[in-house]
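in:
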């Protein structure tokens, strides 16, 4: 244990709270805490060394692993076929894409027509896709009226033109 100082706070076993709590060092003997005051129950007690202080049994509360997505397993062998990301391209769930900023990611969902949810190694992103497609339908084309605008189509007779004989 590192050398302690009076009024320093250390994490130690509290026999009253029956758990590891922050304790204020009240008295020292030979540089080791001889009396502690628990900041949980405010009782003073001598240092105890029950099970909680053993090295091989770390406090379970501090080893909470982050909720990890095993992207490497999902992408195993597929990074080479990653399609470059473009908002104009259309993707489907389970596609592997390569984003210029976020790197390789897996399309996990397409919650809306032009939105995809992508899991990258460092981020989970909602991205646009398929942006080019709505512009394609014939809505934008002006109506054509060939019967009005093309009076001299080749297959029509030309009544006012006479051939010389
Ligand atoms: Zn206590």
């Amino acid at each position: 244990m590192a050398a302690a100082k009076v009024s320093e706070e250390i994490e130690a076993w509290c026999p009253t709270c029956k758990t590891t709590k922050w304790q204020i060092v009240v008295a020292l003997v030979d540089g080791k805490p001889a009396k502690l005051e628990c900041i949980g129950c405010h009782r003073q007690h001598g240092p105890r060394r029950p099970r909680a202080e053993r090295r091989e049994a770390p406090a379970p509360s501090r080893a909470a692993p982050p909720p990890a997505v095993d992207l490497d397993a999902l992408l195993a062998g597929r990074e080479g076929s990653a399609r470059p990301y473009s908002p104009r391209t259309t993707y489907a769930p389970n596609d592997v894409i390569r984003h210029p900023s976020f790197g390789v990611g897996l399309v996990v969902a397409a919650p809306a027509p032009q939105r995809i949810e992508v899991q990258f190694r460092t981020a989970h992103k909602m991205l646009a896709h398929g942006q080019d497609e709505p512009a394609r339908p014939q809505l934008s084309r002006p109506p054509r009226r060939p019967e009005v605008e093309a009076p001299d189509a080749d297959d029509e007779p030309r009544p006012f033109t006479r051939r010389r004989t």
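note: The first strand starts at residue 9 and ends at 14.
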